[in-house]
Amino acid sequence: MNLGAPEIILILVALVLLFGAKKLPDLARGVGRSLRIFKAETSKMNHDDDDDKPTVVQAQPAPPAPPQEIHAAPPVTPVAEPSAEEQARRLEEQAARLRAGAPSDKRA
């Protein structure tokens, strides 16, 4: 996708209208922090994958086990992880409280 000057200006005008000129620096700062964290985590994952060395394990025959009854496990309800936007919003709220000197709210 090739963005020209008119498209970029239109996007900037829309951002100013949506968020206001005073909130744009905070928004940009939050996006920058999120990208830095994301890049650091992905580089850690790639680095961890490089450190894994294959190990050779020789299989030994196991004695036959007696038959056992198999019971179905109760279904596990998945726990929804907060989205990156939600995490960024919470961090920004905590930073604003710290700047204002308000006591921290420990909800999560």
TrEMBL record:
InterPro entries: TatA/B/E (IPR003369), TatA/E (IPR006312). Residues 41-108 are annotated as: Disordered. Keywords: Cell membrane, Membrane, Protein transport, Translocation, Transmembrane, Transmembrane helix, Transport. One of its GO terms (molecular function) is protein transmembrane transporter activity. Residues 86-96 have a biased composition (Basic and acidic residues). It comes from the Bacteria. Coiled coil: none annotated. It is a single-pass membrane protein. Its main location: membrane. GO terms for biological process: protein transport by the Tat complex. GO terms for cellular component: TAT protein transport complex. It is found in: Cell membrane. PANTHER family: SEC-INDEPENDENT PROTEIN TRANSLOCASE PROTEIN TATA. Belongs to the TatA/E family. Part of the twin-arginine translocation (Tat) system that transports large folded proteins containing a characteristic twin-arginine motif in their signal peptide across membranes. TatA could form the protein-conducting channel of the Tat system. The Tat system comprises two distinct complexes: a TatABC complex, containing multiple copies of TatA, TatB and TatC subunits, and a separate TatA complex, containing only TatA subunits. Substrates initially bind to the TatABC complex, which probably triggers association of the separate TatA complex to form the active translocon. This is Sec-independent protein translocase protein TatA.
